[in-house]
Design a protein that fits this description.
The structure is a single chain. By secondary structure, this protein is of the alpha+beta class. It folds into three domains: 8-111, no CATH class; 143-261, Reverse transcriptase/Diguanylate cyclase domain (Alpha-Beta Plaits), CATH 3.30.70.270; 274-354, Arc Repressor Mutant, subunit A (Orthogonal Bundle), CATH 1.10.10.2840. The chain has helices at 8-23, 31-47, 51-72, 78-126, 132-138, 162-177, 204-218, 234-250, 264-269, 274-281, 290-301, 306-313, 317-331, 338-354; strands at 145-152, 185-188, 192-198, 223-230, 256-259. A five-stranded mixed sheet has the order 2-3-1-4-5. Helix 8 links the parallel strand 4 and strand 5 (256-259). Helix 1 (8-23) runs antiparallel to helix 4, helix 10 (274-281) crosses helix 14 (338-354) and helix 11 (290-301) crosses helix 13 (317-331). It is elongated and about 100 Å long.
Length: 358
């Protein structure tokens, strides 16, 4: 095999030579021979040549070698053929194993480099720093506009261990790294992260599919929020999407992707000021009735579906109706009326944004 190892055909013919030489009674390939193969596979892995193409070239070489060997063997002596097949399979195992390990090692190295570059660039964009030089060095093109995605990692158990959190982060990183060639950047931490998707690389439906893909990776349905932004607006958009994510999760909305433009009004209700305080006080009568407050929060998240709320709270649907009637009596706001329902929703958003009372 020549030292440059520039094409797969050379591997096919060299493997055929290996097979014929070994079957003719010569020594196995030397460590130097295998090292040349490893270097070639490493170059192909970095160049993006599929592993199955490399393995096909190796197997093709061995088929040619075996075919050549069989033409030389006396057909009466079947034992020679059997011995030859066993030797060839043994050598094929050695070479395939060496090639696969070299390929996977280089692939992991490439993924780590790419992941580091995407993380570094994402941190720079989120921090509002200049990225042109950094982007050129990483070989990544900075888009004019991005979809800023806020992710929150759910805790699959009450107090997840650091190892459990690290596994969640690793799975999300692996799933996102597959999109790195499209310019998708990400910055992740123990409890969540931010993903920057260049527009128009992924359509709205593809972004929805990405959330489903990430959910499948961690085996838990994720909640995410998104907003469009130009490069200078990325830091502000990230702050807004994470604030909206907190609001969505506090309100116990169903998992999925929530876009900022569909929740702009709810977001505005969370802005500090006397109006928010006034809205929040409308639920003060429920302070002494935590079961009613919880019912209101879950029932509104379920779009007033009494059966779904009942199942979630483990109570009868009629009990849900009774509790909502008590909420009407205590607050003076009737959820059966559009105006009352709007006031209750607004008051709940304001209350949740203020956090628990001291």
């Amino acid at each position: 095999m020549n030292q440059t190892c520039t094409d797969l055909t050379s591997v096919t013919w060299r493997c055929a030579e290996f097979a014929i030489a070994m079957l003719d009674g010569h020594a196995e390939p030397t460590a130097a021979d295998l090292e040349q193969l490893v270097r070639a596979v490493t170059e192909w892995a970095r160049a993006g040549v599929p592993l199955d193409a490399i393995q096909h070239a190796i197997h093709s070489g061995f088929r040619r070698g075996m075919a050549e060997f069989i033409t030389r063997v006396d057909p009466v002596n079947a034992g020679d053929i059997t011995t030859g097949i066993e030797l060839a399979l043994s050598l094929l195992t050695v070479i395939t194993s060496a090639a696969s390990l070299a390929y996977l090692d280089e692939l992991r190295s490439v993924l780590c480099e790419r992941r580091g570059a995407t993380t570094t660039l994402a941190a720079a964009l989120l921090g509002g720093r200049s990225t042109s030089t950094m982007a050129r060095e990483c070989g990544i093109t900075i888009a004019e506009r991005y979809t800023v995605l806020a992710l929150g990692f759910p805790a699959t158990r009450p107090n997840p261990t650091p190892n459990a959190m690290n596994r969640t982060i690793a799975r999300i990183q692996d799933a996102l790294t597959t999109h790195a060639e499209a310019g998708v950047l990400f910055l992740l931490g123990p409890h969540g992260g931010t993903v920057l998707i260049p527009e128009p690389v992924l359509s709205d439906s593809e972004v929805d599919a990405l959330i489903q893909h990430l959910s499948a990776a961690v085996e838990v349905e994720l909640t995410a929020t998104s907003a469009p932004a130009t490069v200078p607006g990325i830091p502000a958009a990230a702050e807004h999407t994470h604030e909206l994510l907190n609001l969505v999760r506090q309100a116990h909305n169903t998992p999925g992707l929530y876009r900022f433009d569909n929740f702009a009004l709810e977001y505005q209700l969370t802005r500090p000021g006397p109006a928010r305080r006034l809205l929040a006080t409308q639920l003060d009568p429920l302070d002494a009735h935590p079961d009613l407050f919880k019912t209101l929060r879950i029932h509104l998240a379920n779009e007033l579906n009494r059966r779904r709320t009942g199942r979630q709270l483990h109570i009868h649907a009629n009990t849900v109706d009774y509790r909502m009637h008590r909420i009407k009596q205590l607050t003076g706001l009737d959820p059966a009326l559009p105006s009352g329902l709007w006031q209750l929703r607004s008051a709940l958003i304001a209350r949740l944004s203020e956090g628990p009372k001291p």
